[in-house]
Please model this.
Amino acid sequence: MLLIIDNQSAFIRKFKRQYLSEQNFDFVFFDHNQPITLSQKSEIKGIILSGGRGNPFEPLNLTSNFVALMNFDVPVIGFCLGHEIIAAAYRGRIKKLPEYHAKKELITITKPEDPIFKGLGKTEVILQKKHAFHVTELPESFISLASSDTTATEIIRHKEKYIYGFQAHPEVGSPDGLMLIENFLRICNIL
Model:
């Protein structure tokens, strides 16, 4: 089962309607401020932390993100705010950008051998961006897999675990983004 924490993201709800609802695997959604309540029979195989408003240090209650991230030993992928939550949880640094970004941006993949890029066959992708903050300092346990003109930490991964962060939104508007998500689902043994 795929566990998804929704941080008030219109993108993740669109992804649910247009992609997840058509799949043959189980998934469960929890709002960012809702306790994670699962039956003992639930077998979580992967977690998505969605994008949303604000940043990991503002008043928005993001507790369920941290609970999911730290209490399940499964692959995790975070989009935008989810990416920033992952970095903050592992002691990275987040800063506000000089201006808000809401556009598609070219992302340069610097570690194409990572399994998240399997079958992509190129080292540049264009993904949707919508954020005001970015990761400026990686936690010691993470590496950068891709960069953009906006940030050197566009896509990150834990050095020993399948924990990924994407500053962009691969869940919307791009066949390449969907391929990256499906690679993540394969890493989780969901697909």
